[in-house]
Design a protein that fits this description.
The protein has four helices and seven strands. The protein has 140 residues and is α/β, with parallel strands linked by helices. The chain has a seven-stranded mixed β-sheet with strand order 3-2-1-4-5-6-7, with helices on both faces. The chain is globular.
């Protein structure tokens, strides 16, 4: 089993914003391994943060910035998250965590379940459900 490349939308590298991922100023990109180790890859600037919600050009710009990412992580669902789930290879996930560190713990704890979702997408399936991961367990 290979690593998952994840992206967490934030503004300061520490806290997840309580807005849509596409509205954050930057994306933290990390690789999480089956052994649940997280390795920081890079920070990518969100050039689309000022574009209006639910616009195709905003989603297209974000997808271009994050073309190599398997999993998008945010605190809030959005119209574009639903479009991404229905029509792309990327798996959006909502977490209730407030910090990047806590979000990583949720992802690491749920690695097997998330890997299964990503594998389905790699096979061409496009489930529209966006799972919500909470400290007390996942909830779709």
């Amino acid at each position: 089993m290979e690593h998952l490349r994840i992206c967490i939308g934030c503004n300061d590298g520490v806290r997840l914003e309580s807005t849509h991922m596409g509205d954050t100023g930057q994306f933290l990109v990390l690789d999480v391994s089956p052994e649940r180790e997280a390795v920081f890859v890079e920070t990518r600037i969100n050039r689309a943060s000022d574009l209006e919600h639910a616009r195709k050009d905003k989603m297209r710009e974000v997808l271009g910035i994050l073309h190599d990412v398997d999993v998008f992580i945010a605190r809030k669902n959005s119209p574009n998250f639903r479009k991404i789930a229905a029509g792309t290879k990327h798996q959006p996930i909502v977490v209730t965590a407030e910090t990047v560190e806590d979000a990583l713990r949720l992802i690491q704890r749920s690695f097997g379940e998330i890997q299964h979702l990503v594998d389905r997408r790699r096979r061409g399936e496009r489930p529209v459900e966006i799972p919500v991961f909470r400290p007390d367990g996942p909830s779709s």
